[in-house]
Predict the 3D structure of the following.
Amino acid sequence: MEGVDHAVDCWNRGCNCAESTLRGVCHTLDTELNVQCLRMATPFGGGIGRSEDLCGAMTGALLAIGAARGRSDPKDDKSRSYGPAGEFYTRFVEEFESSKCRDLNKSDFTTPGHRERCTKYVIGATRLAIHILGNER
């Protein structure tokens, strides 16, 4: 899938998990991201500033869902993004058994195992978000 390949390419070029997932999903959906949007994903790598809390790949996917289905006017319907975001969260946790970076990455940012483990979450989050958003069209 092109979006997954794009996300992995970003990951391999040095983007963090959140940046890579956001870029892969939005690439597939032809959702335009300006420089500020791309920058907003940066602090979520490593589970929010490497706090190892919410998985960065998950956060990147949720940002992409917002970019594709979010609202810019408070009068617009929030459920356009709440529905797919909730479904994404539930399915991600079912597939990977956690939403926490510390559980998924095993508190390891220094060994080659980190890149290998987190590639799986970048791929999974990108694939899942694309699937959910594609089914909504």
Summary: The chain has one domain: 2-136. The helical segments are 2-12, 17-29, 35-40, 56-69, 79-96, 101-104, 112-136. The CA atoms of residues 90 and 99 lie 9 Å apart.
